[in-house]
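Show me a record, fold above all:
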Amino acid sequence: MADWIDCATLAQPKGLEGGLAAKAAAGLPFLLSEGAQVALVPPQEDAPRQVTVAAVEERGSAEAVVFFAEVADRSTAEAIAGC
């Protein structure tokens, strides 16, 4: 079984392509990187529960806009915002 870490919070959607603003968890550097497998907690109804990071646009040492392979549009991004 893999180890889990609460590493980031997904905030509001950015743009129409499904990107989300993300902040590192308190006391941690930004840990999301391309190819990382992410479990979304709490799980949302009618939204992916696990996603793969497709791209990261850094906005500082603890913030970025993150794109996931399974999130193709703003409506899906809105469904997982807050995870």
